[in-house]
Amino acid sequence: MMEYNQITEKDLAEIATFMDRERLLFGKEINEEYSHDELASVRTYPTLVARVTSTEEVSKLMAYANKHHIAVTPRGAGTGLVGASVAVEQGIMIDTTLMNHILELDDKNLTLTVEPGVLLMELKSYVEEQGFYYPPDPGEKSATIGGNISTNAGGMTAVKYGVTRDYVRALEVVLADGTIMQLGGKVVKNSSGYDLKDMIIGSEGTLAFVTKAVLKLLPLPKKNVTLLVPFPTLEQAIGTVPLIIQAKSVPTAIEFMEREVILDAEEYLGRKFPDNQADAYLLLKFDGNTMEEIASYYDETAQICLDQGAIDILIADTEERSLPVWKTRGAFLEAIKSSTSMMDEVDVVVPRSQVNEFVEFVHELRKEIGIRIKSFGHAGDGNLHVYILKDDLPDKKWEKLLSIAMERMYAKAHELRGQVSGEHGIGLVKRPYLQESLPETSLVLMRGIKKAFDPNNILNPHKVCQA
């Protein structure tokens, strides 16, 4: 393992010459939250947290760290689930949450320029008030846009609109040696050499530090309708999804949910879901400019669902009716988390036609090994979120069963021609599974790219493809 230098009082004094000391947290000044991400399965404190406010500060910090061989960990809101923002080698953590300004709304080019610390919910609210739409919709709305870019976050609307990468026109980044670069631009097309911008997106802070982003916007759809469709079995619910997609009805989102997760969310939120009697549900959303346009899509979808055994079709055609449904869906992760002492998650993505086979496999697996496992996910794009729960299991038994469950699920995803992560990334904790799922040639190329961007390996070491 490579040796890194640690931050000393002398380093602190030097860094304080170009950053306000009040925005530098050193040693015991560092809050416990900086030691882990949302999952909190891995904990390490950085020695210094720098709460930056400008690209220039990031540049000076990176140049200093590179010169003195100090590890640097980028961090936004810390809502990740794979340990990507955990400071494994201590060193400097660069916190972007004060770089939270919306810089420009360009209505001629339909772009929004933002700093990385802008929260997703603030970004979406701002553009929608102006009549525009930023489609990527990850479940964690309190994540920063920089974090979304670093993991290429997807979310519920990916089935129709795509993922974060599809909406990033340009990036300003700081390289490991402090060099500031502009990648991409407001152009719609670009075939000018290797696309370095797209390489940064999804690299989890291992290649460069994002300090600004130019995002593509769309006109805001004027209307939307939600369908909540209960089914007698999960197999029937998920089996209906390929038929909906084949019918070209273009839902904005297609989510699957099981009754047990809905009950968890009801308890967590303290309010009832519109329906909790069926074993499984599809939750669909349609958007468009008129109710007539949307009805032409959802009428056909409703009939497909009924033909496949749906118990009912519950239509929410106003915000008052649909908002509670989506708020409940958005609370699933926190609800599951609050129901157990500890958990870990699998974020596999499989071909859409294989979703049911994977979910049925998970059901059999939890019976076989005797551990609570809960799941929900994006049936429309094949991305499943599976949570393994510790409850009151002794630590050694938990570690053993967790390892078995993880190994079996990733092996099954590989068998179904899926991938390790659909949107949460690899970070620290999913590296072994990535290495098992990819050919060695791919890993060698990834490590070569990392070395080209960061020769001294100071930027978020031990993440993604590295040991």
From TrEMBL:
Coiled coil: none
SUPFAM superfamilies, sorted: FAD-binding/transporter-associated domain-like, FAD-linked oxidases, C-terminal domain
This protein's UniProt keywords: FAD, Flavoprotein, Oxidoreductase
InterPro entries membership: FAD-bd_oxidored_4_C, FAD-bd_PCMH, FAD-bd_PCMH-like_sf, FAD-bd_PCMH_sub1, FAD-bd_PCMH_sub2, FAD-linked_Oxase-like_C, FAD-linked_OxidoTrans_Type4, Oxid_FAD_bind_N
Residue ranges occupied by any FAD-binding PCMH-type domain in the UniProt entry: 42-220
Database matches in Gene3D superfamilies: 3.30.465.10, 3.30.70.2190, 3.30.70.2740, Uridine Diphospho-n-acetylenolpyruvylglucosamine Reductase, domain 2, Vanillyl-alcohol Oxidase, Chain A, domain 4
Cofactor: FAD
Molecular function via GO: FAD binding; oxidoreductase activity
Domain of life (superkingdom): Bacteria
Protein name, per record: Glycolate oxidase
